[in-house]
Amino acid sequence: MDAVRAMPKADRLDSKTYVSDYHRAVAAYHDQLAEQRKKRAAAAAAKKAANARRRGSLHAVG
Description:
The chain has 62 residues and is mainly alpha-helical. It has 2 helices and no strands. It is rod-shaped, with a radius of gyration of 25 Å. The termini are far apart. The mean pLDDT is 87.
């Protein structure tokens, strides 16, 4: 009981805002994951474009 009393009230499971705080944290995490996916997709697109430019400048010698 002492450990529970020592916890901040917002971190307790019986807090009135616990569920809404949880949902807000989950939404923020999903937003973070979506941002990371966008960055990875942009990096992949840039790499693909760079490779296409490089391949376009190559020509057969002979």
